[in-house]
Specification:
By secondary structure, this protein is α/β, with parallel strands linked by helices. It folds into two domains: about 130 residues, Rossmann fold, CATH 3.40.50.720; about 210 residues, 3-Layer(aba) Sandwich (Rossmann fold), CATH 3.40.50.300. The chain is about 40% helix and about 15% strand. The protein has a six-stranded parallel β-sheet with strand order 3-2-1-4-5-6, with helices on both faces. A six-stranded parallel β-sheet has the order 8-9-7-10-11-12, with helices on both faces.
């Protein structure tokens, strides 16, 4: 694996640092040796993120990091709205390329279109990889309907907003079920999934709308053919009713996910970054039902809440929805995988 440092200056403790969070939690593609965030120097990134020491220190600059750790790449670990970076962050990238580090970016901004950065990269024999660069049109797939014949149960991890940890919950479920002897596979659908090295991944928001459903179908059928899984998890994107980027129906209608784990943050009452009130959780469950799918469990993001508060939220939401409720980063996902196992057994008997 290529050793890499992550650029997350000022963002690591914010939702927009979610790419950095995913990489700190683990990647099959990169070995993360450090994180650039001068506000957290002296701390460990794993402990800062979720209390697990991972020996990934924070550094104030590229120069500081390369004095202490090995790296041959810098990964942009932030996901700001619109994919634009600050002038200060751009100077950090120039510094990294000048020292021969490859630049890996999952932003909507394509750095291969930046003549100055390309010139510096060429001069120092390093690469710029824009993960969101779309494939040529002739390599994209249209939806065919073949997925309708697929018998493998699919479970979508959807959310009520962006930046809730849908990918993390899907990853934890896949990993836990795999450890229990279930052949669980995950379809990643964003740039962080690619950076983490998930073998079955398509980056939904790089695609022209006409090809989103076809690419989802194609990667799902490929996964099923090559791995013969017991269950496939879909990493959801955004939410059904986020006005800045509604998403979700594709996974249910075009991907055939008849079951949903619905992720929400009980302390968040409006859509992230916009102040627009979120619809109620019960109405979201009803909306999913109208799509012909069933919410089997609620998964909670614990942002801005104590463990005691989370226990209260779990009890309250369980009473309101009459569904099992879990907080994966506090409780783990063993209880949630039990719900999935029950669904798989039910699916076998039908």
């Amino acid at each position: 694996m290529q050793k890499a440092i992550i650029l997350a200056e000022g963002y690591f403790k914010k939702p927009y640092g979610k790419t950095a969070h995913g990489l700190v939690r683990g990647s099959q593609r990169f070995e993360i040796t450090g994180v650039l965030d001068s506000t957290l120097v002296g701390k460990d990134a794993g402990e800062t993120l979720d209390g697990i020491h991972r020996n990934i220190p924070f550094f104030k600059s590229v120069e500081d990091a390369l004095t202490h750790v090995e790296a041959s790449a810098i990964i942009i670990g932030i996901a700001p709205i619109g994919g634009r970076i600050s002038d200060e962050a751009r100077q950090t990238l120039i510094s990294a390329l000048s020292k021969g580090l490859d630049l890996i970016s999952g932003l909507h901004t394509f750095f291969n279109d930046d003549p100055e950065l390309v010139e510096i990269a060429n001069k120092n024999n390093c690469k710029i990889i824009d993960v969101r660069q779309p494939k040529p049109r002739d390599e994209l797939h249209s939806w065919s309907g073949k997925i309708l014949d697929l018998q493998v149960p699919r479970i979508a991890v959807l959310g009520t907003d962006c930046g809730l940890g849908k990918r993390t919950t899907a990853k934890m479920l896949t990993d836990q079920l795999s450890s229990e002897g279930v052949n669980a596979q995950m379809i990643a659908s964003g740039q962080t999934g690619w950076l983490q090295g998930w073998p079955y991944c398509f980056i939904l928001d790089t695609l022209p709308n006409d090809f989103v459903c076809g690419e989802l179908e194609h990667i799902t059928l490929k996964c099923a053919e090559e791995t013969n899984p017991d269950v496939i998890f879909f990493e959801g994107q955004s939410s059904f009713r986020n006005p800045a980027g509604p998403c979700g129906g594709e996974f249910l209608l075009s991907g055939g996910a008849k079951y949903v784990v619905l992720q929400t943050a009980p302390t968040r009452t409006s859509f992230e970054g916009y102040g627009i009130p979120q619809p109620s959780l019960k109405s979201e469950i009803e909306l999913i039902k109208l799509f012909g799918s069933e919410v089997i469990a609620i998964s909670l993001n614990s942002e801005n809440a104590t463990e005691k508060e989370m226990q209260d939220y779990k009890k309250q939401i369980q009473e309101e929805t009459e569904l099992p409720v879990f907080a994966p980063l506090i409780d783990g996902v063993k209880g949630l995988t039990s719900v999935v196992q029950d669904v798989l057994e039910k699916n076998k008997s039908n």
